[in-house]
Amino acid sequence: MQWVGEEKLAEHGTLLDKALESPAISRSMFDAVLASKSLLAGDAPDSRDQISLDDTLLPIVIDERRPPSLRALALAALTPQDDDLTLPRLEKLLASTDLLLRIEAVRSLRAKPSPEATQLLRRLAEAESESMLLRREAIAGLGAKHITIRPHCP
After folding, report:
1. Is the C-alpha dihedral spanning 40, 44, 46, 50 positive or negative?
2. How many Cβ atoms sit within 10 Å of the Cβ of residue 24?
3. Three-state secondary structure along 41-107?
4. How many CB atoms lie within 10 A of CB 83?
5. What confidence tens digit (pLDDT) does each residue in 79-133 have?
6. Rounded to the nearest 5°, which phi and psi values hold at 17?
């Protein structure tokens, strides 16, 4: 992947897109593909900033045809404060059946300063029907915001 980008082998650019279709793509392979695509687009390696990276990542995150594992990787790399990563988009990701994608959505939600985001974290933390992993992420988000929840007592 690195070779395709560094040598500007645009004729192999479709291979980069195919690599993103793999449901078993690793984080390091994902990063290599993004870096190679950036180099093919003419970006200087030193000048690739988070804003241009976010512009590449968000379409992957919201594309429901992509494997959930890839979408979760993209969401983990996306700046949570990105204006286009809206609360409705995060709520849609939370409705997924894929636990990893949902956990990454909660992690992004934790960085949102809005009262609506805090309320959503609270609902997730208190939902006994939710996965314990998801609830823990929500509780960590509330803790970071210095918000306590009361356990349900019979």
Report:
1. negative
2. 8
3. CCCCHHHCCHHHHHHHHHHHHHCCCCCHHHHHHHHHHCCCCCCCCCHHHHHHHHCCCCHHHHHHHHH
4. 7
5. 888 889 999 999 999 999 999 999 999 999 998 888 999 999 999 999 999 999 9
6. -65, -40
For residues 89 and 74, is the Cβ–Cβ distance under 8 A?
no
Contact between 113 and 143 under an 8 Å Cβ cutoff? The reply is no
Joined together, the tokens standing for residue 85 give: 């990563």
Asked whether 12 and 56 are in contact (CB, 8 A), the reply is no
The sign one gets for the Cα dihedral 27, 61, 96, 151 is: positive
**Structure token pair of residue 69:** 């594992």
Query: Rounded to an integer, what distance in angstroms lies between the CA atom of residue 39 and that of residue 81?
Result: 25
- Measured distance CA(111)–CA(37) in Å, rounded: 28
